[in-house]
């Protein structure tokens, strides 16, 4: 009886690994048609899905820089996890401070594309697993491309193309630096923070993001000139 159960568990694990790897490898080349969050919100809350896949070459370069400055300054250096930020978040939690996010762009991409929302240990474990897979099989450029096309950027708005057209009446390639920073400023809570009607808080975040964008550019230029 026990060997039979073990064989079943082993078969299940191997099958899951094979299917998940194939899933990740497929999305390395194929545009992501939708995410679990899109479909869940559409079914449970009847929110229309506004999503249009746009190749990264057709997105303003400042949009990439803006989300890096806002969400993950070390995106190009880490391998999926920012351990320093994770340690800081854990220290803050021990001190009773307000919980702060430590998820990288890679982690957010893995969660958005392959998983559901939640805070269970199972989901967190799967998030780490899929993060390692996309870092292994995708390039950083591909991770950024999928991220910019799948992340929620407003009520029913998924990806840069949707928010650019809905809030700025533009195609993604025509977004200005300020508009890119404004969109990035809403990412902590895009259902409450709007890039179409920015509050003082969002404007403050926008200014901080633009400042960080300039800093990241200086660091990059310094490294290139070494």
Roughly what is the average pLDDT, rounded to an integer?
Answer: 90
**Strand neighbour order, sheet with most strands:** 1-3-2
Instruction: Report the sheet with the most strands, covering strand number, pairing sense and barrel closure.
Output: 3 strands, mixed
Radius of gyration: 19 Å
Helix and strand element order: HHEHHHHHEEHHH
Alpha carbon gap, first and last residue: 65 Å
Number of helices: 10
Your description of this structure?
With 226 residues, the chain is mainly alpha-helical. It is built from ten helices and three strands. The protein has helices at residues 2-29, 36-44, 61-71, 83-94, 105-114, 121-137, 140-150, 160-168, 177-185, 200-224, and strands spanning 50-51, 152-154, 157-158. Strands 1-3-2 form a three-stranded mixed sheet, with helices on one face. β2 (152-154) and β3 (157-158) form a beta hairpin. α5 packs across α6. The longest helix has 28 residues, at 2-29. The protein is globular and about 60 Å long. The model has no long low-confidence stretch (mean pLDDT 90).
